[in-house]
Amino acid sequence: MQDTKKFIENLSGAGKSIGVLTSGGDAQGMNAAVRAVVRMGIYVGAKVFFIHEGYQGMVDGGDNIKEASWESVSSMLQVGGTVIGSARCKDFRTHEGRLRAALNLVQRGITNLCVIGGDGSLTGANLFREEWSGLLDELVQSGQISEEAAQTHSALHIVGMVGSIDNDFCGTDMTIGTDSALHRIIEVVDAIMTTAQSHQRTFVLEVMGRHCGYLALVSALACGADWVLIPEMPPKDGWEKQMCHKLSESRLRGSRLNIIIVAEGATDRHGNPISSNAVKDLVVRCLGFDTRVTILGHVQRGGTPSAFDRILASRMGVEAVLALLEASPGTPACVVSLCGNQAVRLPLMECVQMTQEVQKAMDEKRFEEAVKLRGRSFENNLNTYKLLSHRKMNAELPRSSFNVAVLNVGAPAAGMNAAVRSAVRVGITEGHTVFAVSDGFEGFSKGQIKEFKWGDVGGWTGQGGSLLGTKRTLPAKHIDKIAEQMRIHNINALLVIGGFEAYLGLLELQAARSKHAELCVPMVMVPATVSNNIPGSDLSIGADTALNAITDTCDRIKQSASGTKRRVFIIETMGGYCGYLATVGGLASGADAAYIYEEPFDIRDLQSNVEHLTEKMKTSIQRGLVLRNENSSENYTTDFIYQLYSEEGKGVFDCRKNVLGHMQQGGAPSPFDRNFGTKIAAKAMQWISKKLKEFYREGRVFANTEDSACLLGMRRRALVFQPVIQLKDETDFVHRIPKEQWWLRLRPLMKILAKYKTSYDVSDSGQLEHIVRLRAKDNSAI
């Protein structure tokens, strides 16, 4: 980080023109990226042009290149695909085609390009940039442009954003569209599971991914599939027998269905393709199971973008404009991407070369290396899947004499069950006896404790709420009884999955260690709450599902006003005193304002918001959206804001209000929450195993150090264990929120995209990182 802070006010786009295009296969979220580029570009004073139909539009020129206005990207955020069109373009691959494209850009003064597409599209853009000065020389020689025009437009700057549902681009954690494609796959899997269960069927699902198994792997992890076939890690010879054994074993344990997920590019070790039909025929031939094939096809590219993709694309779009403003003639073409929850810039060709190396490693049958080259996130997904899906025979299991208890504490959050399933299975794999506690600390004190076996958590990943049962009760008043139950069941370690009460509970248990030796055991907490208000973690299980619920509802509410007169909606979100859901939900649904406790507001702010909306309604925009966190202000209640807007907007717009309530806590967990829950709980259980060995002395476990009671949280780019006692200083206990929250940096983005003048600290942006250094740093990425 630099010493001097950089602010957006000091960056000017005056006199610059930016062209934005989407190219290659479409992906949900591309429109959100286009919208962000257009609005951020206009905000800094640049002209922004749509280039319709990708490179084809650039080559053909004419009406394909049109100047964009602020209103022209209104209502684009929630639309899937790409509104400005995309096409595979043969002409741009020819020198002649690129010459015509250069002429079309120079005629409109465009020397900044923002390309949203896959690696092919970005490689094409880089080639165009390298040839640029030569192309201009040719145009001068043929008399199509003047010498002066060539000098004015002498440098072409390119910034890429990766839009690809396959997540096949190295250097980025997630590409635009991947999360939405996972939503489509998981919706289908959840629906198929109910019919498969009824008939005791096996389903073979084929998902996209000709060269990359990300979608197959992550959806297998998210639904607990029995078997997955991906191109990066073909199964070992004899896999057919192994797979059939696994399927029949799961049926013997009482499962009524099997799910097998196949990536379309799956092969065996010798490069022979493995088709979904071949897998079906194999199961029928060997086991005689009633088996069906479902090929998902283009369904995966369709539908509305998920909340994650909208936020990712909006952040990337803004970052892309900043990168273009700061580019000098010598700056290499870069890609803006997300690493953890941080925006980063990476040299485009380094990423492309790394992506090509993966393919080369696969072609040369260096499969372990291909997995490593895909990045830590991919590797961790694969390792976690292997850990959870292949139950070793009892003879193969290491036997420890340790008993580990798992419990849920606080309000229910979607993804808790995935975390419990993962903890139980990893615990069993590590050789422990795993006990599940019902109804939190209250159930613990009453002895509601039962041993869980591998099959007891089958089918849990897709279930919402908390199947174990959860309560907000804190342990302090039951401490004697809890200690007694720990003694009765000889509990040697605790894994607590929950919200702020779980954090407080762990602090209370640690404080009581001096009185109760039974509590001197390793304890770890995994954050799970829709409010995302846990110190020590940027994200918690359940928040992504809640965000999607808010975003879906806001989409519907906005749509309810289409075709009617001008209307503003006031929507109240959950979160306690934490404004995460209101802020990030506001960014994902295109809100005009989001009122939160962390950013105090007064009547003047409310007045200026009303005036801003009144101005907006004088244009072609017909709808306004205002979010309010439930505890943002004691006196400016949702009713007050609704009445104020209704009164002040008379004659211009009318108002409606909505309190979203508990629907934000319900529903099936999103793919992100299933995976986050699965991976973070697996890591927590592995930590427990390590600590049990460390603290085992003279026939018993005794852990009394600060670092034996930890919270496992996601911090910037990695999963980190932090002693809960050290997090006390970071906590506002009265309002139950962390003192510093990373997402507050996203608030100016929401304001800029809603046309407010604001101050935006861009000090974090701007450093071009290198992909290899990035991978070395990223040693505990999720």
TrEMBL record:
Residues the record lists as binding substrate: S164, I165, D166, R201, M208, G209, R210, E264, R292, H298, V299, Q300, R301
Residues forming the catalytic site: D166
Pathway: Carbohydrate degradation; glycolysis; D-glyceraldehyde 3-phosphate and glycerone phosphate from D-glucose: step 3/4
Assigned GO CC terms: 6-phosphofructokinase complex; membrane
Entry keyword annotation includes Cell division: no
Gene3D superfamilies documented for this protein: 3.40.50.450, Phosphofructokinase domain
Principal EC category: transferase
EC number(s) stated in the UniProt entry for this protein: 2.7.1.11
Phosphofructokinase domain boundaries: 18-323, 403-688
Main localization (coarse): cytoplasm
Cofactor: Mg(2+)
Sequence positions that bind ATP: G25, R88, C89, G118, D119, G120, S121
Compartment(s) of residence: Cytoplasm
GO terms for biological process, alphabetical: canonical glycolysis; fructose 1,6-bisphosphate metabolic process; fructose 6-phosphate metabolic process
Keyword annotations: Allosteric enzyme, ATP-binding, Cytoplasm, Glycolysis, Kinase, Magnesium, Metal-binding, Nucleotide-binding, Transferase
Function: Catalyzes the phosphorylation of D-fructose 6-phosphate to fructose 1,6-bisphosphate by ATP, the first committing step of glycolysis.
Subunit note: Homo- and heterotetramers.
Protein name in the entry: ATP-dependent 6-phosphofructokinase
Gene this protein is translated from: LOC113045291
